[in-house]
Specification:
The chain has 166 residues and is mainly α. The longest helix has 20 residues. It comes from Goodea atripinnis.
C-alpha cells in the first residue's frame, strides 16, 4: 500500500505480481529489459514493479537515480544488494559505490574516488586516452586485415590497464 501511488503496469496476479509477465517473456526467449523500457515509456521515468511481496522501483531518470544512490534516506534492499555483491558464486560488483548499503562506507569511498573523476584531472588525461585509442585502432585494423576474431573484452581491458598504468 505504501507504494501504490507510484504508477506501474497492472499486476498479472495478486500474489505473484508481474512474475508471470517475466516468465512469458523468458519462455519466448525474449528480453525482459525491453519490457522495462516499454513500461518506462508508458508509465514515466519512475514506475512500480511487484514481484511476490517485493516492490521494485524502475528508475530511468538520471537525476532520480543519482538522488537514490547518493542519499541515505532511501534504504537499499539487503537481499538484492547481496546478490549484486556475488553473482553465481563469483564476485560481481563487490562492495563498491553502487552496492554499498552503509552510507558512511559509501561516503568514505566516494571521497576517495572524487579527485580521480574531476574534469580538470580527466582533461589532463586526454592525450593518454587518445594515444591508447589510436593503439587500439591499429590493433583492430590488424585483426580486421587478417580476418580473425577479436576478443574485445581483452582488448578493452588492456587499453584500460594501459591508461591506468600511464
Amino acid at each position: 500500500m505504501k507504494y501504490d501511488h507510484i504508477p506501474g503496469p497492472p499486476r498479472d496476479s495478486f500474489f505473484l505480481g508481474h512474475s508471470p509477465t517475466f516468465v512469458r517473456i523468458m519462455k519466448k526467449d525474449g528480453i525482459v529489459h525491453n519490457k522495462f523500457l516499454e513500461w518506462a515509456e508508458i508509465y514515466g521515468p519512475v514506475y512500480r514493479i511487484n514481484i511476490l511481496h517485493y516492490i521494485i522501483l524502475g528508475v530511468t531518470c538520471p537525476e532520480a537515480t543519482k538522488e537514490i544512490l547518493m542519499s541515505p534516506k532511501y534504504p537499499k534492499d539487503r537481499f538484492l544488494y547481496k546478490g549484486l555483491f556475488n553473482l553465481f558464486g563469483q564476485r560481481f560488483f563487490g562492495n563498491g559505490l553502487v552496492t554499498a548499503r552503509d552510507h558512511e562506507l559509501w561516503y568514505k569511498q566516494r571521497r576517495i574516488m572524487d579527485p580521480a573523476f574531476s574534469s580538470l584531472y580527466l582533461r589532463g588525461l586526454m592525450g593518454t586516452f587518445n594515444e591508447r585509442a589510436e593503439k587500439l585502432m591499429e590493433k583492430l585494423s590488424e585483426i580486421a586485415d587478417n580476418n580473425t576474431e577479436a576478443n574485445m573484452l581483452q582488448l578493452v581491458n588492456c587499453v584500460t590497464l594501459d591508461v591506468i598504468a600511464k
